[in-house]
Amino acid sequence: MYSLFFKTVFARMDPERAHRLGFALIRFAARVPPLRRALAARLAPRRRELRVEAFGRVLPGPFGLAAGFDKNAEGIDGLAALGFGHIEVGTVTGRAQPGNPPRRLFRLTADRALINRMGFNNEGSAAVAARLAARSARRSGTEHRGGHSGGTGEGPVVGVNIGKTKVVPEEEAAADYVASARRLAPYADYLVVNVSSPNTPGLRALQATESLRPLLGAVREAADEAVPERRVPLLVKIAPDLADEDVDAVADLAVELGLDGVIATNTTVAREELGLRSDPSLTAETGGLSGAPLRERSSEVLHRLYARVGDRITLVGVGGITTADDAWERILAGATLVQGYSAFVYEGPGWARRLHEGLAARLAASPYGTFAEAVGAAHREAEAA
Ligand SMILES: Cc1cc2nc3c(=O)[nH]c(=O)nc-3n(C[C@H](O)[C@H](O)[C@H](O)COP(=O)(O)O)c2cc1C
């Protein structure tokens, strides 16, 4: 049914308008409690065997929504009702900014891919923190009376992804991240330092260890000061375009700094080597490419990270995941959690449910009792062989 809707409605609309419409429908559903409950009853993971533990929380399933869909934390509860086990909001920057001028989002339907150069359009960390605070107050006042406040506790796991404001010079990048971390850490089940989007000039240079070390240190300190009662898990999100040695360097740094996780990967600036089928006028658009053609490289980066860090750090696999097989492969490669964005556009609202059901079937057919046992199994098998 969704594929017909996609072909007749969304595919004929400008992609960014289609996103706004789809997201408005999701938020509407969340505001009508019987509708939200009906959706959640049908789509949200409830099987015990799907539960996974990460970042001090139990998640209803390993599959979540990647950053960029809900940049301003407006639709967390609607998205959770669609079955995402965690929702990563953002990227949020220190100051509000409009992002790049439209058109800035392109559908490569023949490749099941997207190209975006949104450029971190978002309301800024003060506004997003206020929205998260209001949500948290609503929740502690109603459904979760007596429960604890802040970003932790029951309900969907909420990651908050932060990035640099475009007009802030690179020398002041850390202060911009720190301002966001201070405001947002109280509401975050985990915090992500995004240094890998291709659409903010100079951002990816922050992946170099000499820049990344002080940046992560400063954000860690800011989160600890803002939330003294809880150690907010801190992750870094990396690009698929890093050279292998640079992936290793980030992995070593993550261990050295006691980081909680690494998210691999963001979108790619690569084109030619991806064997794209879409019209060259589309594939030539500037920006980050995501979706199916990214799968192989994202998986490769994840394998490399796991080979280096093993289970010392929680890895999150993202990039080109469409099916349960894709997600299962990523878990065997070393991911405790998996995420996706682009395939949501092509697969529709039943996507997270299909993925979780398929993962439960893969687990049942495997020699592993739990997802935790399956994490990184591809490496152990390779060693044993
Ligand atoms: C339109 C769009 C906007 C995105 N915005 C962000 C962002 O703000 N921050 C971020 O870390 N990643 C962003 N991403 C990257 C995704 O989170 C994800 O890492 C990437 O798309 C690969 O996953 P996928 O192939 O499942 O889409 C964006 C992706 C898309 C398609």
From TrEMBL:
One of its GO terms (biological process) is 'de novo' pyrimidine nucleobase biosynthetic process. Residues 50-363 form the Dihydroorotate dehydrogenase catalytic domain. Its cofactor is FMN. FMN binds at residues 67-71, 91, 161, 194, 237, 265, 291, 320, 341-342. PANTHER family: DIHYDROOROTATE DEHYDROGENASE (QUINONE), MITOCHONDRIAL, DIHYDROOROTATE DEHYDROGENASE (QUINONE), MITOCHONDRIAL-RELATED. Monomer. Belongs to the dihydroorotate dehydrogenase family. Type 2 subfamily. This is Dihydroorotate dehydrogenase (quinone). It comes from Streptomyces nanshensis.
